[in-house]
Amino acid sequence: MKKETRKVLVVNSGSSSLKYMLFDMKGEKMLCKGLVERIGIPGSRLVYQKPGQDKLIREIKAPDHTAALKEVVAALTDPANGVLKSLDEVDAIGHRILHGAEVFQDSAVMNKANFAKCEKLVKFGPLHMPANLGGVKACEKIFKGVPNVGVFDTAFHQTMPAYAAQYAIDPKYYKKYGIRKYGFHGTSHKFITQAAAKFLKKPVSKVNLVTCHLGNGSSLAAVKNGKVMDTTMGLTPLAGLVMGTRCGDIDAAAVLSIMEAEKKTPAEMDKLLNKQSGLQAISGVPGGDCRDICAKAAKGDAGAKLALEMLGYRTALYIGAYNTVIGGADAIVFTGGIGENSDVARAEVIGRLAALGIKLDKKANLKTHGSTAVISTKDSKIPCIVLPTNEELMIARDTVRILGK
Fold it and tell me: Which residues contact 270 (CB under 8 A, 6 or more apart)?
């Protein structure tokens, strides 16, 4: 008889950080969460928090991810503040993995064969993938015999038809190098699709949505009958919307023109487009933080106002297109740091959707921050809903589902 997968540790391993969350899947209760910062850098620290309690923060030594995970384990099993008596209580570990390409169309157990397949996909995410896989390796060392499940950021989007996913370039580049649209934030879009279907009292298989994950990185998905038909990010997370530091859609010839005129290398151009563009470049706000941009715009700053207009325009543009793609949405859903919390940014978007018969409920919008609410008027043809995302819970759910097969 199979052991029940009850306590699931969710790990999101970055290049110099490790975020974690522990769930009791009986009732989907979050037991604790936290992160290790500055892995491999002086000044490493552990953050640990139980629901309803203050964060516990302490300086640690974390030269690598294995050392960081050992500190997490010590916190989880600490007699005074821990939530586990021993590591034996952890039934499974779910990992966020950036890129599954076409190899992984669903979450998967990270056995030797699947791990080897993931190693071949590092080329698609050279900054994130080694850290993601390093997290798996670290867990294998510390949690002996506990199954690890990879949950891929790209998997939910793999239902896209070829006409949406492929680029109109010589097909040899797709065949040789896998150059096509993959999309990201898939775990968030999947969670929101399920949550929106429940909110609308419709089966997931019959729900049509435009899901808007708006944060420092942003993407939209066109969901028809519970499956993705299109998404705004592409081969990498650079494409689509105007984001915190990413430019989003841009004429490829403009990139080549800048490279030629400024004598920039591909690496330098990559840094310009991914780290030095977007809301940051237009507003002058470091990091492109939407809260700071809104505050600056409220004081009349022209650059900040333009940045918000760009965010609203590009998002509304894609909402209109995706509403057509899915044959009419049952709802437009806002999530992510900006989507859940910025009434100003949402107003910039919804104010441009009048042609879809949508009107903003200003009062509902102003009072909605991080909670579920309808922010369009009752006479709107399509409801606009704010729904908080929970990628960690989606990873935990997928881990239980995959191990239950």
Answer: none
Average pLDDT, the chain: 97
Q: How far is residue 221's CA from residue 318's CA, in Å, rounded to a whole number?
A: 9
Give the span between the Cα atoms of 21 and 28, in whole angstroms. 12
Tokens at 230, concatenated: 């299109």
Contact 163, 197 (CB under 8 A): no
- Residue 108 lies in domain: 7-152
The count of domains in the chain is 2
- Enzyme catalytic residues: 153
What burial class does residue 141 get, using C-beta atoms within 10 Å of its C-beta: 0-12 exposed, 13-18 middle, 19+ buried? exposed
User: Three-state SS for 24?
Assistant: strand
pTM over 0.70: yes
Pairing, β 108-109 against β 18-24: unpaired
pLDDT of residue 1: 45
Residues 132 and 240 in one domain: no
For residues 134 and 234, state if they share a domain. Answer: no
